[in-house]
Design goal:
Helix content: 25-40%
CATH topology: Glutaredoxin
Strand order of the largest sheet: 1-3-2-4-5
Strand content: 25-35%
Radius of gyration: 12 Å
Order of helices and strands: EHEHEHEEH
Largest sheet: 5 strands, mixed
GO molecular function: protein-disulfide reductase activity
Number of strands: 5
Number of domains: 1
Organism: Hahella chejuensis (strain KCTC 2396)
Family: Belongs to the thioredoxin family.
Site (Deprotonates C-terminal active site Cys): 27
Site (Contributes to redox potential value): 34-35
Length: 108
């Protein structure tokens, strides 16, 4: 895992995501999810490339069901961009780097 991607929990979601000064890309995932594992290196690369513009965090839906439920996560991986404390874009399913950069750029 990249030093640029932070794993967070239900307990710190508000502080890390909602109260963030910069946009946050949240990856809702689970260890048993193949597509989640496939997208992980892409998220690591994006987090490093865009560290000045966006923070990337991961929320394990098995361990953090309160946030996953509140966000109405129905499939994983689900990516949600938060800006100024509000969800502004979401995408379900694995994506490549070009698609991910485009998704984030449009949201921020």
């Amino acid at each position: 895992m990249s030093a640029f991607v932070k794993h967070i929990s239900d307990a710190d979601f508000k502080d890390v995501v909602i109260n963030s000064d910069k946009p946050v890309l949240v990856d809702f995932w689970a260890e048993w999810c193949g597509p989640c594992r496939a997208i992980a290196p892409v998220l690591d690369e994006l987090a490093e490339e865009m560290a000045d513009d966006i923070q990337v965090v991961k929320v394990n839906v098995d361990d953090n069901q309160a946030v996953a439920g509140a966000m109405r996560i129905r499939s994983i991986p689900t990516l949600i961009v938060f800006k100024n404390g509000k969800a502004v874009a979401n995408h379900s399913g694995a994506v490549g780097m070009a698609q991910l950069k485009n998704f984030v750029a449009q949201a921020i």
